[in-house]
Amino acid sequence: MDRIGIVGTRHRFDESDISRGKDGILHYMVGDNTLVELLANSAARNANKIALRELNGRSVDYSELLKLVEEVAGGLRHRGVSPGDRVGIRLSNGIDWVVSFFAIAFAGAVVVPINTRLAPAEVEFITEDSGLAYLFLPNEELPRGDSYRFSEATRETLAGILYTSGTTGRPKGAMLSNENFVSNVETVKRVVPIESHDLMSLVAVPLFHVTGLNAQMLPTIAMGGTLVLMETFDINVFIDSIETYNIDTLVAVPAIYWFALNQPSFEGVDTSSVKYVLYGGAPMPPDLVPKMMGAFPNARLGNGFGLTETSSIATFLPHEFAKEHPESVGFASPVTEVDLAEVDPVTGVGELMIRGANVAMGYWNLDLATKNSFGQGWFKSGDMARISDEGLIEIVDRRKDMVNRGGENVYCVEVENVLAEFVGVLEVAVIGVPDEMMGEKVGAVVVPVPGVDFDPAAMVAFARSRLADYKVPQYVWVKKDPLPRNAGGKVLKPNLRSDAKWGVAIF
Prior knowledge:
Blueprint: H1 5-10, E1 18-20, E2 26-28, H2 35-45, E3 50-54, E4 59-61, H3 62-78, E5 86-89, H4 95-106, E6 110-113, H5 120-130, E7 132-136, E8 158-164, E9 172-177, H6 178-191, E10 200-203, H7 210-222, E11 226-229, H8 235-244, E12 249-252, H9 254-261, E13 276-280, H10 288-295, E14 300-307, E15 312-317, H11 319-322, E16 331-332, E17 336-341, E18 350-356, E19 362-363, H12 367-373, E20 374-375, E21 378-387, E22 393-398, E23 402-405, E24 408-411, H13 412-419, E25 425-435, E26 439-448, H14 456-464, E27 475-478, H15 493-499
Parallel strand pairs: 3-11, 5-6, 5-7, 10-11, 10-12, 12-13, 13-14, 26-27
Antiparallel strand pairs: 1-2, 3-4, 8-9, 9-19, 14-15, 15-16, 17-18, 18-21, 20-21, 21-22, 23-24, 25-26
Pfam families: AMP-binding, AMP-binding_C
Domain AMP-dependent synthetase/ligase: 40-364
Enzyme class: ligase
């Protein structure tokens, strides 16, 4: 099925800016070619504008940001980092995070953002798997040296490795090229009609994820806007910052908006400055959309859908469709083609396939996984979807066994592998537990070894020592009977979801 025609009817763009390459993929023919160009060009246009502002009062303008980045790039080179080396960032949101990100690119290296919530064992795996040559850590001075700018990178050069939770229990590093990063920037410019670069964007989501990094940080810097950076998320600080800084652009997962709108302090906040309320990363509760429209009366809403492997935005639901189609993730973005594989003739549901200049190069050091998920420019998303005649895409299920906890993807097998190591666990299955705010929380169904005095709290404590906190089960159902399985031995998780007896959350 040809899905290209969907693009032109819903998203603002000049068709002359887009061309199909020899690889059969649509590419932007305008904009920056690399991350180095993106910052350098924006700094030249916006030298004296504030680029980054922390809530503690520290700020830098674009000329200062560029100078810092070049000096830290020189510091990396002085410490032996060479072009192509991988360099990690394990910092909280802040000016140092942004400087580190661009400094890695200016040094010619490959950025590896690391989730600050990961357990030590998870960080150790990423460090070893990627072969980090250097790691930015909290409470350490940024390395400084003579100004340096690597100028030999191309659009095809590997620029970043972003790790996702793995379906086999190990994280997978999605390899993003310079074009992947800058292509997403161009997409944001087109699907979010920001006419002026005088934007003030509140960063409330982690920069180590593609939502904060690709859908917010990079487009804002490319357009010469200001990023107001929250080091860690605090709902009251989030609410107060909207009025304090005259924020005009918000990007968050639905759970954050739900949480904000349900705070007593929100009622007195002046939200008139907000022009854009963008969301994604998790399903949107239908009744939340009209509430958000009422809470932000001057704002346009928009739902962006994508994955780490698609550099963030693959589809976008514009404001005009948000209220009537809250269940939809919108239309294909300008350089993205979508299709369905193995479509059920009755339901019209198939696996969502995505192709475009935004699709990652593959998985780091995982040839088989790359072969299974990527081919001829297409990425198999693992999401089951249907596409309406007018091009609206609706995600109806997941082919991958995953819990979406407020925008954080938790692959069940990863958690199951850890829980299975706890003494006294005979069988275990991890599934999502419905939650009004987070959408889902992690639940574990455990069948203990007969005769063992099984302690659910001790198992959860064991998991907390091995997994990031958001992956640790908050609910445990101790089941006496064996887990239900089909003839092939596969656990019937739909049966568990319908029969689950969760009781009170453990934490």
